[in-house]
Design a protein that fits this description.
single chain; mainly beta; Maltoporin, Chain A; 22-stranded antiparallel barrel; five-stranded mixed sheet; 6 helices; globular
Length: about 725
């Protein structure tokens, strides 16, 4: 380790931890119940698998406008590069494809080009966020090789009428709107949520590498203008004392406007806007067999489709189908698309059914198990050989949590997966936790398993990167990817000070990469029209199992409550990688650092809250986040950065009353840092420089269930305590 790294490590260790997982009594969540690590309920302090929690209180004081801001600002483990197609997220050195995102335990659907559109998640509808790092395939199946993020949303479970409106406005015409309506009618409760997100986007540099030359007058933005909205509904019905049912659904749309560049209209990225359409529906129920044991059943359907809305003439290679084409029927030709026309690029649909049981057995055993079935369907007329493709996976899993001694818990699990393309596969895991007073010592090992996606098997598309253009081709002969994840850590939870240190090693095999291939290797039935005259204007690449990697690092978190009103938090993450990745330029494997990896990331905050009068409470959150240099194989590394942020909250009205108001005023990036690296080469951060924002919220609650809340608020007020919503 170099002196520079050692110095950074010592400084970060002295600062340590923002995450609410390490705050315990400091943040009032010592008795919070978490579920993600084992799929069963545990108090946070007793969770056998290390679980980090971003609590409701942290969300309220930080005031993040998006999930990217929340995760990037409240934990040092994540890195983001927000773009048109979604968020290029990284956890423990691994990207989107290896991170499983859940909403209330259900998989987020909406993967586009290996990225995730986190705009699907309304930040104002989040109750808390649970994060479990490392391979979790034994419990959650494919994709959970770097970790799991479980978004727990707000629920409405009483007879009160609940109304909520939150409006946020910031620089670059950034608008965030949230509305919630909840009510109860006997055994039925309803919660309706609406969200709107809009920004005009911003441009950090006018320099761009495109069409084999460097442009100095590019109109393309660092983040382009977009508008999205979502409407979601959830119904809960208590059919019997021990049986509850639910039904929920949502609709989401997003429009991204990308400016044309008048002097270079042939650039692929300038000739069409992007439009997304998502829909989901789910039904399920829970049967409480007795006071502790329970069985749940969930069935959900998701649809994600995206379109090109053409803004200038663009040539698309299409298969001509229909008798009107005569001898050309079934052939691939270059067909012009004109301004105002639209064309479906990809429609991904997924159907999942899950049954799960949790049983508390004698001798301190908790047994859980379940079965799952997943069907994936891809409709992509321009991008697959037959216009569509499908895949299915069935799985069964079992897990036992055994308290061998009063202070020792051992948890083991095993999943059996049957995929119609790849046959049977077993993925085990085991973890142990020792409770020694205020200390918790945890260690674990788990295997990860990830089947190739339908896109990696069948999809093909053109990708423009700087001065190079690639024709990327799916490969039906891919093998699944695997991993072995090892971790060990210690956690201390005291009255005012809490801290945790966790080290890990993650070894991955058969990683899928896009590899340069000659024309002769292109599968039969795949058009070679994209390759032009063979002069090398377009390079063919195919998905292959070519890479392996080892990531290893240390995560540290700490929090100290100086007074009842002031808490200091910080977190630090050290990461290194040892990988063999395919060099597309030289057609060979090389030992490299994984793209986007930074050795050091950190965050810290000081949170102060004080109630000046029964009707006014002030909150201050001064926070910072930063990263050392981010490494990339081509086109230079991303610059290191440090960004400061101030958010103030002003709560108006007594917490035991029906109507509450909140005003937030904040400034992000106080020192106006911008990374002006030439597009599209890898940026350290896409921040727009100093921005300001204001948020106004109104909450109204009325009904029989309010009486107990009013009494609780009066009791706390009379005792001099502060109360939370």
């Amino acid at each position: 380790m170099t002196a520079k790294r050692l110095t950074a490590l010592i400084v970060a260790t002295a600062a340590c931890g923002t995450m609410a997982c390490a705050q315990g009594k400091v943040d009032g969540i010592l008795h919070e119940v978490v579920v993600t690590g084992t799929g069963t309920q545990h108090l946070l302090k007793d969770a056998p698998v290390q679980t980090e929690v971003i609590s409701r209180k942290m969300l309220d004081t930080y005031g993040g406008k998006s999930l990217e801001e929340i995760l990037g600002g409240l934990t040092a483990s994540f890195a983001f590069s927000e773009g048109d197609m979604g968020s290029q997220m990284q956890l423990g050195g691994l990207g989107n494809a290896y991170i499983l995102i859940l909403i209330d335990g259900k998989r987020v659907h909406g993967d586009v080009g290996g990225e995730n559109d986190l705009g699907l998640i309304d930040p104002h509808n989040i109750e808390r966020i649970e994060i479990v790092k490392g391979a979790q395939s034994a419990l959650y199946g494919s994709d959970a090789m770097a970790g799991v993020i479980n978004i727990i949303t707000k629920k409405h479970h009483d007879d009160a009428l609940y109304l909520e409106n939150t409006t946020r406005y910031g620089s670059y015409n950034d608008v965030r709107q949230h509305n919630g309506v909840g009510f109860g009618l006997g055994r039925l409760t309803s919660m309706t949520n609406f969200q709107l997100q809009h920004t005009d986007g911003w441009q950090n540099t006018r320099m761009e590498r495109a069409e084999g030359q460097t442009l100095t007058d590019s109109r393309n933005k660092t983040l382009n203008k977009y508008t999205n909205y979502q409407l979601a509904e959830r119904l809960d019905y208590q059919l019997a004392k021990d049986l509850s049912l639910y039904a929920e659904g949502s609709y989401y749309t997003k429009q991204i406007n990308r400016p044309q560049n008048g002097s270079h209209p042939s650039c692929d990225v300038y000739t069409y806007d992007l439009r997304y359409r998502n829909a989901s529906a789910a039904v399920g129920g829970k049967w409480n067999v007795n006071k502790r044991d329970a069985v749940t059943l969930d069935v959900d359907w998701n649809k994600h489709a995206y379109y090109y809305d053409y803004t200038a003439r663009t040539y698309e290679y299409m298969k001509l189908e229909g008798e009107e084409y005569g001898e050309l029927n079934g052939e691939w030709y270059s067909v012009p698309m004109y301004r105002g026309q639209s064309k479906l690029q990809s429609d991904q649909q997924r159907l999942m059914a899950q049954a799960k049981g949790v049983f508390y057995l004698p001798h301190d055993n908790t047994l859980s198990g379940g079965m799952e079935f997943r069907y994936d369907y891809l409709n992509a007329p321009l991008r697959t050989a037959n216009g569509s493709a499908s895949d299915w996976t069935a799985a069964a899993y079992v897990q036992d949590e055994f308290n061998m001694l009063q202070w020792l818990n051992v948890t083991g699990g095993l999943r059996l997966v049957q995929n119609h393309n790849f046959g049977l596969r077993l993925t085990p895991k085991i973890s142990a936790m020792a409770s020694l007073g205020d200390f918790r010592i945890r260690a674990g090992w788990g295997q990860g398993f990830k089947t190739p996606t339908v896109k990696e098997l069948h999809y093909r598309y053109l990708h423009v990167m700087g001065s190079s253009t690639f024709f990327n081709i799916g490969n039906i002969n891919l093998d699944p990817q695997g991993s072995n994840h090892y971790n060990a850590g210690v956690e201390y939870r005291g009255r005012k000070f809490t801290a945790s240190v966790t080290g890990y090693i993650n070894k991955l095999t058969d990683m899928i990469a896009l590899v340069n291939v000659p024309v002769g290797e292109i599968p039969a039935g795949v058009t070679t029209a994209y390759l032009g005259d063979g002069s090398g204007n377009v390079q063919a690449r195919m998905y292959k199992n070519m890479e392996d990697a080892k990531t290893y690092g240390v995560d540290m978190n700490a929090s100290y409550k100086l007074t009842s009103e002031l808490t200091l938090n910080a977190s630090y993450s050290y990461l290194d990688t040892d990988a063999h990745l395919y060099d597309t330029q030289h057609n060979r494997l090389e030992k490299v650092t994984i793209d986007g990896m930074a050795h050091h990331k950190w965050s810290a905050s000081a949170v102060y809250q004080h109630r000046f009068t029964p009707k006014y409470r002030l909150g201050l959150n001064l926070s910072t986040r930063g990263s050392s240099e981010r490494f990339y194989q081509n086109n230079g590394n991303g610059k290191g950065f440090q960004i400061w942020r101030l958010n103030t909250t002003h709560d108006l009205g007594r917490t035991d009353r029906k109507l509450l108001y909140r005003l937030e005023l904040g400034v992000d990036n106080l020192l106006n840092y911008r990374d002006r690296t030439m597009r599209p080469y890898h940026l350290g951060t896409t921040t727009a420089g100093t921005t300001v924002f204001a948020t106004f919220s109104i909450k109204f609650k009325q009904g029989k269930a309010l009486a107990s809340a009013e009494k609780k608020g009066r009791d706390k007020a009379s005792s001099g305590e502060d109360s939370e919503e």
